[in-house]
Amino acid sequence: MSPNADRHVVLSALGGALVAVSLFLAILIAIPYQFFPLMPPGIVSLRSLEERFLFTSASMVVMALVAVAQWDALALDSRDTSALGVLPIPRAVIVRTKFMAVAVLAIGVAVAWNLAPTLLRFVAVPSKLGVSLAGALRLTVAHGVVTLAAGAFGFLAVLALREVMAGIMGQARFQRISAAVQAALIVALVTALLLLPRAYTGVARNWLAQGGLRAKALPPLWFVGLHETLAGSVVDSLPRTRPPRFLAGADRDATDLYRSLWPRYHELALIGIAALTIVAVVTTAACMWNSRRLPVPVVRRPHEGGALRHGWRWIVTHAIAKTPLQQAGFFFTLQTLSRQVSHRVALASSFAVGLSLILITARGQLLEGANDVASLPLTILAGQSLLLASVLGGFRHVVSIPAELRASSTFSLAWPGDLAPYISGVKLAGWIALVLPTLGCLFIWHDTVLGARLAALHFGVGLVESTLLMETLFVRYRLVPFASGYVPSGELRSRGVVSAVALLCVSFALAWVERFALTATTGYLTLLVIMVGLSAAAMAVDRASRRPITPLDLDEPTTLPTQRLDLAR
Amino acid sequence: MLEARHLVKRFFGTAVVSDVSFDVRAGEVVGYLGPNGSGKSTTAKMLTGLLETSGGAVLFDGQDIARDPVAFRRRLGYVPEEPNLYTFQSAIEYLELVGRLRELPPALLTRKIGALLELFGLSHAANQDIGSYSKGMKQKVMIIAALLHDPDVLVLDEPDSGLDVTATLVLRQLVIALARRGKAVLYSSHVLELVEKACDRVVVIHRGNVVANDTVEALQRLMSRGSLEEVFSQLVLRVDPERTAADIADVVADHA
Questions:
Q1: Least Cα separation, residue A72 to chain B (angstroms)
Q2: More confident: B2 or A545
Q3: B139 vs chain A: nearest CA distance in angstroms?
Q4: How many Å apart are CA B137 and CA B91, to the nearest integer?
Q5: Bridge-partner residues for A244, per DSSP?
Q6: Which of A11, A445, A563, B4 could bridge A559 with an S-S bond, Cβ 3.0-4.6 Å?
Q7: How far is A495 from A100, CA to CA, in rounded Å?
Q8: What is the pLDDT of residue A563?
C-alpha cells in the first residue's frame, strides 16, 4: 500500500497486537480468581471449562484467520518458480523450504498469541486453593499444549481446505473460486471471533451436558476435553475444605456436574487428537500432491463474456453511469473490489462486523416477529442500519487503499481535473455491488420475520438510508479513490470505539423512529422525505466545497506526527 | 512546442539533472541519449510534469506547464520507462480506463482500442489479465495508452524496451509517421541504430548535463565519426568496452 512501508514494522505491529490482546485477555480472566481467593474447586473447575473454551476457540479462529489472510502465500506459486526454479536447487528443497516458511509463520503467530495466557495460567487459580507447584506446572503445560493444538488445527484446516480444493479442481479452476472462498471464510471467521466473548459462557451446561452430536461437532470443545483429560484432575482432586456457606451448594452442584462429564472429556479428547492427526495428514498429502511439479503461471480465464456481459455494460453506460468519467469510476471500482485481495479482505471483514453486531444485538431473537407494528423488535429494524453502516464504512475505507500504487501514474497522466464525476461513478458501483446485495439478503430475513409488506417498506428505508450514508461518508472527500497514497490513521483505536457506540445509538434511534413511522403511511413518507432531504444536504455541502484538483498529487498524505523524524534532510 | 529550460533536479541535495536545456518542435523526432543513470528518465518525468523540478521550467507552446498541467497533459502522450499497469485488469479494461479518464467518446474509444490492439498484435490477449503479459506486451499497452487521445507531443522513455524485432521496426516507422503529422516526439532509447534512423536531432546527456544537441549528420561531421554509436562512445564513454568486457570474463572464470 505504501512504497515506504516496512515489512518489519508491519510484522512487529502485528506481533505486538497479538501479544497485547492475548495478555489483556489472560489478565481479564485471572482477575476474579485474584479478587476471590476462596473460590471452591468445583466452581473453579466449571469456570475453567468456559475459559479453556474461550482460549482454544480464540487460538483456533486467530490461526485460521492468519491462514486465510495469507491465502495465496500458503503454497508455492509461479513467482517462486521464476525466482528459484532457475537455480540449481532440487524441487524437493524448494517445496520443503516453502512449507517450512509457512510453518515458521504459523508457529510464530501461535506462540505470540498463546504465550502470555499460558505463562499466566497459574494466576487464573485462586491462591487459597493450594495447588502444588507440580499441579500449576501441569496446568500451564496442558494449557499451552491444547491452545497450540487448537491453533494448529485452525491453521491446518484452512490450509487443507485450500490444498484439497486446488488438488481436486486443478489450479486454473481453483483460481476462479479462490477469491470467493477466501471472502466467505473471512466473513465466517471474523464473525465467530467477534461473537466469542458472548458465546463462551455456560459451556458445560449448554454444550457438554447436552451431549450428542452437538458437543462433538464443535471443534474447540475437543480441545477443552483434551485439556481436562490432561490436567482436569489438578483442581478437581483438591481436598474440599469448607467453602463459604453461600457457595457450598453451588460448589457441590458444580463438582457433580463437572465429574459427570468425565467420560465426555475423554471422548472429546480422542476426537480432537484424531481430527488434528487427520487434518495434518490430509494437509501434508494435499500439499505434496500439489507440489509434485513447480507451479507455472495460470492464465486466468479472459474477462470476456457473452450477451449478459454486453447487456450489463449497455445498461451501465446508458442508464447508470452515463459520462466517461463516471464509467471510469464505476468499472474500475468493480474490478478492484472483486480482484484485489486487500480490498476483498477489508470488505469481507466489515461485512462480518455488521453481521456480528446484528447477532449480538438480536440476542437469539433473529426469527421473532410481532403481531403488530408497534411491537416490532427494534433489534430487527436496527439490524439493517448496523449492517449497511458496517459495509459502507468498509467501502469508504477500501476506496482509500490504492489498487496498485505503482500504476497510479495512470491517473496522474490522464487526469481531467474534476474529481466529482469519477467519485460519483465509484459511489454508484459501491451502491450496486455492495448495498443492493446486502439489502437483498436482509429482505429475505425480514420477509420471513415481518412479512412481505413490512419487509418491502423496511427495504425502502434501507435504500434511502444507504444513499444518505454513502453521501455522508464521501462529504469533502478529495482524494482519488483507489489511486491516492494511503497511510493508516493513528486515531483508529479511539475513533473505532466512538464510532461503534455512535453506530449502535443511531441505529436503534432510527429503528425506533421507523417503527413509529411505519404505523401510518404519512409517517413513513415523512421519514423518507427527511432522509432524502438529508442526503441532498450532504450532496450540497460536498458540492459547495468542491474545487478542481490541479495538479493531481497522488503521493502519500503527511506521515503521522510520531513518524515525522525528518531524517531525510 | 515543448521546451526544457535549464532543468535541474536534486534528490536530497544530489543533482541528478544539473542543467538541461533543449526543445522539441512540432513535426520533429528528437532522440534523447545517455548512459544508465545519466538523468534521462528524470528529465522525461519532469517534462511530463510527473516530477517537480528543483530549478528551471518546462514550457509547452511558450507556457509553463505548471500553470495548467491538466491542459498540458490533455495534449501529452507518455510512455514511461517501467510499464506500471493494473495487473488485475485486461488490456481492454486498462485502455478503457485511460480513455474514459481522458473523456473520449465511448464509440470512438471502443473503435480505437480495437483497432490499435489489432495493429499492435495484442488482440488475441486483449481480454487476459495484464499480469500474465510479457514485458513487450505490457510495453505495447503503454504505447497504445499514450496514443489513444491523439496527443500533440509524445515523450517516449525507452519505449522499445522488451519489444520484439517487428514491433521495434513498427515503432520506428510510427514515430516518423507521427512526426510527419505534426507531432513533437522526444524519443529516449539505448538502441542507437533506431535513434540514428528515426530521429531528426539528437540530445546527448551525461552526468545530468547536455553534452551534445544537433542533427546526427552534424554530430558525425563534427566529431569525424562514421556512426552515431561512435559519436556516442566518444561523448560519454569513459572506459574501454573491450578491456572492461575482458576483465568481466576474467572474474566470471575465476574458480580459485
A1: 15
A2: B2
A3: 13
A4: 9
A5: none
A6: A563
A7: 39
A8: 47
Whether the Cβ atoms of residue B48 and residue B155 lie closer than 8 Å to each other = yes
Residue A366 has pLDDT above 80, yes or no: no
> In terms of CATH architecture, what is B1-75+184-256?
3-Layer(aba) Sandwich (3.40)
Nearest to A223 by CA among A114, A335, A333: A114
β-bridge mates for residue B59, sequence order: B3, B64
Range from A9-18, B91-100, B121-130, B247-256 carrying the lowest mean pLDDT? A9-18
* Record: contact B85-A328, CB cut-off 8 A: no
Q: Report the complex ipTM.
A: 0.87
Strand B201-206 and strand B29-33: the pairing is: parallel
CA A468: distance to chain centroid? 26
Q: Which residue has the cell 499514450?
A: B146
State which residue of chain B sits closest to A483, comparing Cα positions: B86
* Interchain proximity A569–B12, CB inside 8 Å: yes
- Residue B82 per-residue DSSP state: S
| CB within 8 Å of chain B, chain A residues 410-449 | 410-417, 422
pTM: 0.82
Nearest 5 degrees, angle CA A19-CA A25-CA A28? 140
Residues in chain B: 256
Q: Do A324 and B97 touch (CB under 8 A)?
A: no
Closest chain B C-alpha to A339 CA, distance in angstroms: 6
Compute the C-alpha angle A32/A33/A34, nearest 5°. 90
Query: Does residue A487 register a pLDDT over 90?
Result: no
The answer to whether the CB atoms of B101 and A404 lie below 8 A apart is: no
Nearest to A74 by CA among A55, A90, A95: A95
pLDDT for residue A323? 92
